[in-house]
Amino acid sequence: MLIVRATKKLRDRIGPLDLRGDERSTTVLGEWYATRFGWRADVLLLVNEATLLPVLLPLAPAATALSRAADQIAAAMATYGASDAIIDAELEQMRPHRIGTTANRSVVGIMNEFGYLADVYRGRSGQPNLDELAARLATAPCSPLYRTHISPDRAFTALVRTIPRRGGAPTA
């Protein structure tokens, strides 16, 4: 099950909370945090709690945003070197999803920083290429990662290498 910890400004658009207190993410990547960029066409920002990897996609239509998010997360996983087997297993676990409130202030702070950076990177252009923008954000140094991998792209790549293959060995 995919757990999305959404900010209030996003929950107002995608629907009410439905996460029960005892539910946990069944995905290897763990929980994702999400917010909305109020650009001319709203954009959904998802940030993985473990690696801080950002994923961007159009918010509209808001009712299907989290269903579409799973496919966008899978595309990002492929970009950063996850095997097809890992992606398929993760997609299978992400199909059911729940919405909860944010619980990690550090990740919320990183989402705010990504918001500032995204505004700068997109400049005065209307709607940027969201995949390119997410890739650029993924290279930004993040203070929670300073002692390990520095940036989300490196943290994600390192995490993927630790995921065992179906035979049991890590995917180095």
UniProtKB/TrEMBL annotation:
Residues 3-154 form the DUF6933 domain. It comes from the Bacteria. InterPro entries: DUF6933. This is DUF6933 domain-containing protein.
